[in-house]
Amino acid sequence: MIDSDQEVDDFLAIAGNFLRKRGSLDHVREHLTKDDDAPSFDREIWQTQAELGWTSLATPAPFGGSRYPLSVAGRLLQLCGQHLLPEPILSTIGLAVPVLCAQSGEPTARILRRIGEGDVAVAVAGSTDMCGSGPSAQVRLEGHGNKSKVFGSIRALDVPGADLVLVPAAVDGGWHWLAIEPDGVAAAVTTLIDGRRQSVLEFDGIALSAENLLSPVLAENEVLAPILTTGAALTSAWLLGIAERAFDLTVGYLKVRSQFGALIGSYQALQHRISRLFCELEVARSVVAAALKALDDVATDAALWASAAKARAGDLALRMTSEAIQLHGGIGMTEEADVGMYFKAARVANLVAGDREFHRMRAGLLLGIDRNGAL
Amino acid sequence: MSASLIDVFRRDIRRWLEENCPVSMRTAMPMDELPTGGSSDGLPKNPDTQIWLNRAAARGFTAPTVPVEYGGAGLSAAEAQVLAEEMQRIGARPPLLGSGLSLLLPALLRFGTEEQKKKHIPPIVRGEVRWCQGFSEPEAGSDLASLRMVAERDGSDFVLNGQKTWTSFATAADWMFCLARTDRDKPKREGISMFLVDMRSRGLSVRPIRLINGDEEFCESFFDDVRVPADNVLGEVNGGWSVARHVLSSERQDVRPWMEASFSFPVVELWRENPRSEPEIWNRVIQNELDRLGLDKLMERAKLEASRGGRDAERFANVFKVVNAEYQQERAELAILLKGVGGLAWSGQPVSRVDSDLTRGWLTSRAFSIAGGSTEIQLNIISRRWLGLPVG
After folding, report:
1. pLDDT tens digits along A330-358
2. For residue A135, what pLDDT is reported?
3. What span, in angstroms and rounded, lies between the C-alpha atoms of A243 and A315?
4. What is the C-alpha to C-alpha distance for residues A108 and A120, in angstroms, rounded to an integer?
5. What pLDDT does A22 receive?
6. What is the pTM of this model?
7. What is the mean pLDDT of chain A?
8. Is A364 on the interface with B (CB under 8 A)?
């Protein structure tokens, strides 16, 4: 598997340098002012990220992937979260690759290889719509064999932009994962508050080929499991990165801003607030690390840790970014200050792969804390 | 140590525990069966407590990593971990608890003279001598360094005058480690020394303080010309503040096993027995269990850092103290909430000991964010020391 911790550290150090070189978040702000129909990222930079080994990071070695354990993908996503990376790395390696790795067959293997080469960015439809009632039949596959057609509508983050979108489609008795090129599919495009694009894809009976069909019929608890466990754990690392950066920006501001003739960081009321957040940050770091380790170990309680991490990282990122604005005062409300960007990115990431309320409940059920006589 | 040697060690430990840990010592520990050691308490309520203490002490297992020459077992960190795991596996109670073992002993190892180590560590490890901590004073609580107790040199002795408060179990203790001012002209942290004081010393008197949980373990101690030999200064004269800081950081790191052993708020079990239908309560039970998991993982990181001798171990201790206090207090509140009015019964019939312990433990939990450096003090330390925020 892994040669040494040093090798991983070096890999992440190179990734960190790459992210820092882009400097300010102006490139992220730019996407907010572009046409909604334009992708929210730069294709050339995506290719460079593939060359750095990012897009193959979560893929097993037999499919052209890396020798690193999955936790390294989590640590990369944590760095990317710190820098609000606009490229669809979270969608592709955090969600699509786990879904693909849970399937088998030649079309799946081909997509994994193309992801690793930077040839395609892949989105996962429905990933911002996880909720307590399980998958809802937004998209249906009708007909049999090579006469199958796709009907229905579903939301997909990072479309436009992604070259392929993975779609969970209901059939009688279960679910299939489909891979569909969104080009040519009717779509209502929205730009979200963090600059990311989202489409509602409308399928009006497009014909399906063998290349599109990724899985056999899956049971309801199987179809979303890769998103709710591996995807949630990896997304929690991204959220942790957002919270870390918002925290650092705020501590930095407390050390330079003066009011009433003193640095505001010298006031105990503010010291205690930021220090309490630091305590929560340390707990969240511990839980996210545990969730990533559980993935590496293929632990039996990996689902529990993933939900614990996603709920906690969601709580932390939302609270941290809200407090970051408050502790910055008026300047925190301005477009110019970065904390507002983190506030918005946290809200979007919280919804990816199940929000904090969903995962808190899921963790509770996995802990055997049933709702008993609850109303 | 190689994996196979560790396996052999584990087998030996498992067998030893099987043969030596009394069955009643493998159950949850009620508050009145704490193995505190010492000479003055009379026999413990459950005789197995003493048997288990004696057997563990004979092997040095009350202080597993302390060198054999001082009565410990001289185990490596890895071996001590195995011992802890094997004890946890059978639910063994800690054979000995107390501030001598967990607070003073680490400071003795670090700052003590060879004579002090030889004299004081073995009786602590054997549970023969019980210690109490004399730090706080009526006018020096969170602001400990402003303490006023005076120690004046007189020949080969120091003469101590003043008052200490929150000296836990002072009525039952044999010795006290306490801070006193040895130089009033120096800045407040540089004129303090740490003294080891025999509780039988003339001029030393103790009065218990009754707390909201019914306990009388905390005391006030009055020093009226108490003579302490100069040999009983731990560390340098006027160097007591660094000894105190060492003790306080041990206190922060030690708090978890003590709390786990002393207080059990079986929230999930109570939820199952009395499933309240309000979703808010369900949510709080889940969140509290998730906090428990989070603290377990935070603790693992802290231990790893401590075993590396890293500076960040103290940072983890500050963070842990804050989060753990809140978690325990919420857990206690939830337990009492789920008990309903039964959780508020104080005495009379029919209040079982388990229920009474739960109620008193809940009341005690309010002290978790006060004792051992309050939450506010921890947040001050985090702000200044770890986040580098400016001093006002």
Report:
1. 999 999 999 999 999 999 999 999 999 99
2. 61
3. 10
4. 13
5. 87
6. 0.87
7. 93
8. yes
In DSSP notation, B29-87 reads --GGG-----SSS-S-SSHHHHHHHHHHHHTTTTSTTS-GGGTS----HHHHHHHHHHH
Residues A328, A333: Cα–Cα separation, whole Å: 8
Instruction: Answer whether B273 touches A (CB < 8 Å).
Output: no
Q: Which two tokens stand for residue A361?
A: 């409940």
Q: Which of the residues A276, A281, A371 would you substitute to probe the B interface, choosing the one with the greatest number of B C-beta atoms within 10 Å?
A: A276
Q: What are phi and psi of B223, to 5 degrees?
A: -110, 120
Nearest to A345 by CA among A126, A83, A11, A130: A83
Answer yes or no: B216 catalytic. no
Our CA-based measurement puts residue B327 at a distance from the nearest CA of chain A, in whole angstroms, of: 12
Write the pLDDT tens digit of every residue in A237-251.
999 999 999 999 999
Q: What number is the average pLDDT over the span B226-246?
A: 96
Phi/psi-derived region of residue A299, left when phi > 0, alpha when psi is between -120 and 50, beta in every other case: beta
Contacts of A282 in chain B (CB under 8 A): 298, 316, 319, 323
**What is the SS3 assignment for B292?**
helix
The residue behind tokens 């969600």 is A95
Give the 3-state secondary structure percentages of chain B, helix then strand then coil, rounded to 5.
55, 15, 35
Instruction: Return the residue of A nearest to B286 by Cα.
Output: A364
B276–chain A Cβ distance below 8 A for any pair: yes
Which distant-in-sequence residues (6+ apart) come within 8 Å of B7 by Cβ?
A: none
**Arithmetic mean of pLDDT, A169-188:** 93
Chain A contact set for B388 (CB, 8 A): 251, 255
pLDDT in tens, B43-70: 667 889 999 999 999 999 999 999 999 9
- Per the omega criterion (within 30 degrees of 0), is the bond before A88 cis? no
Q: Is A258 on the interface with B (CB under 8 A)?
A: no
Alpha-carbon dihedral B165, B166, B169, B170, rounded to 10 degrees: -10
